[in-house]
Amino acid sequence: MRLTVLVGPGLVADAALLASSTAAACAELDVAGRVVTAGSAEEMRSLLAATQQPVVALPGPTPAARALIGAQPSGVVWYDLTVEPPVPGAVHLAGRGLWGLAWAIRHAVHRLRAPAGRIAYGPDPDQWGDLRLPSALDTGAAPVAVLLHGGFWRSIWGADLMDALAADLTRRGYASWNLEYRRPDRHGWDATTQDVEAGLVALRELARDRPLDLDRIVVLGHSAGGQLALRAAADLAGRTSGPRVALAVSLAGVLDLAEGERRYLGDGAVAAALGGSPATAPRRYAESDPMRRLPTRVPTLLVQGTEDSLDLVDANRRYAVAAAGAGDDVRHLEQPGDHFAVIDPASVIWQDTMTAVDARLGR
Q1: Mean pLDDT value of segment 215-220
Q2: pLDDT reported for residue 308
Q3: Which residue in 30, 160, 218, 254 has the most C-beta neighbors within 10 A?
Q4: Strands of 2-7's sheet in order across
Q5: Which CATH superfamily is domain 117-360 in?
Q6: Which one, of 143, 138, 121, lies nearest residue 130 by Cα?
């Protein structure tokens, strides 16, 4: 497999850095890579039509090149180094700078190696999930793994962060439902929490004609997604109808919003997401802070790397004690690893996470 990074006219970036970043990301994925620069929008169109997948296209600033975003061929992953709004109908990432090129390359390769069906659960461009089904089922319907990405609830980060886990879970016999959702920096906090619940409720419709076992739903949230996972599990546990979460898994989760706001976690990410402090936005903290939702009455697995932010290590330890004290069924798995080791399928901490998940779901 050879991946092409196609650079549009007028892109502001050093060519040598683009080449070295592409080479490093491709080596990590065991694929060949090259960088091709288009001198015009028309040349970019021609190269897109003639180049075999996977392709990551960096459109650059010119209107003619940007008009190509989302055009055929549909398998292209478009990546903007700058912050841009999502383009309806396109596979589009944006806003992570040069470092984000590696994520775009990973997304393109994972999409090709482990194809997913992208299914909308609402009308907004950010209301969708990638569904992957296992190729073979041992017995009956597959347990469902719902994935909620992190990124401190900011729109520059998306569901592609969980691609590798989604593919790994499918290989393990799970149906993976990798959710995108509207982030609060563009849509407000309530839209974010509504979308997560809507994405989970959408599983009922998906299960009508797919072999999904809705009695074995595990929700896995990374970083800020860990907070979203615990809130969604607690919310659904209190509903009289709809799906229930059999296991909530927080992967390096942000589990104490009030204290995180006081510590200015993520350069003020908590207050920015919830629209204020516990004093100015009390309802949102009461509904969303994992520490304030205890007991959740949902079995919970906390996974935390010791080389991560000390504030996250601290919050996870304190949450484990508080949850057990409130009567919840909680397990705290703390092992060596950084913030991204917990979503790396090759890491020891992820292997141990799945051993615990499988045991809980009777696999």
Answers
A1: 98
A2: 98
A3: 254
A4: 32-37, 2-7, 55-58, 77-80, 91-94
A5: Alpha/Beta hydrolase fold, catalytic domain (3.40.50.1820)
A6: 121
Q: How many CA atoms lie within 13 A of 159 on its CB side?
A: 28
Q: How many CA atoms lie within 13 A of 34 on its CB side?
A: 8
116-138 mean pLDDT: 92
Distance from C-alpha of 241 to C-alpha of 244, rounded to nearest angstrom: 9
With CA atoms as reference, report the closest residue to 316 among 340, 334, 337.
Answer: 334
The pair of three-digit structure tokens given for residue 177, joined into one six-digit string: 């439902």
Between CA 352 and CA 133 the distance in angstroms is 23
Is the dihedral angle over the CA atoms 136, 138, 143, 145 positive or is it negative?
negative
The answer to whether residue 9 scores a pLDDT higher than 60 is yes
Where are the chain's structural domains? 2-106, 117-360
Tokens of residue 12, six digits: 């502001």
pLDDT in tens, 35-68: 999 999 999 999 999 999 999 999 999 999 999 9
